[in-house]
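Page 42, continued from yesterday. The earlier attempt failed because a stray header line got pasted into the input along with the sequence. Redoing it now with the clean sequence only.
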Amino acid sequence: MTPAIKLAPSILSADFGRLRQELDMLAKGGVDYVHMDIMDGHFVNNITFGMPMVSDLRQHSNLTFDAHLMISNPLKYVDNFIEAGADIITFHHGTCENPAVLAQHIRAAGRRSSMALRPHEPIDNILPHLNNLDMVLVMSVDPGFGGQPLQPIALEKAKALRDHCNSQNIPMDIQMDGGINLSNIRTVLDHGVNVIVIGSAIFDAPDPLAAIKKFRDIFDK
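This time it went through. Structure tokens are written below.
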């Protein structure tokens, strides 16, 4: 069984000079989450933004903030992101000594816990931790930069993960991030993904609200 489909536009592709207006546009479009790619220049070779921006945006939005921590030592910073207003916190398996401790800490703070899987990582990294997670993020590009094409290997990992969760009666959101657009969204959904992160296909569209509606229309089919 696949949970309800949710749309999570990634503000990494937004105009950073107009982020408040971009948030207003997303709210008008009725999106489910705002995906925030937090990069530290260490775990990945890029730097984006941190807790102060999350906190500032929180003051202007009631949308669900989905923080993807592409950072080293997330346990050191997780409370700061919780205090800044993140509702969902995703971390990477190899960035902490004990993923279960971090996942449980996030849940104890009343937030949703998520773990990310890079395209070429085995799903075996995730399976022992499913009972402490609310979501798994299957990366369909190598983390660090937006605008990359979707790697098909991620689709098979998402399908294997969905099949495993169904076989064990584990309710789980499976998120995918990277290279998703109108031409491949149906394939992504057919592989058991239900939380869809979309960046340039929305923010670079001539009419972002119309783009959101086109994705929604596909979701409803």
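Notes: The chain has a mean pLDDT of 94.
Reminder to self: strip header lines before submitting.
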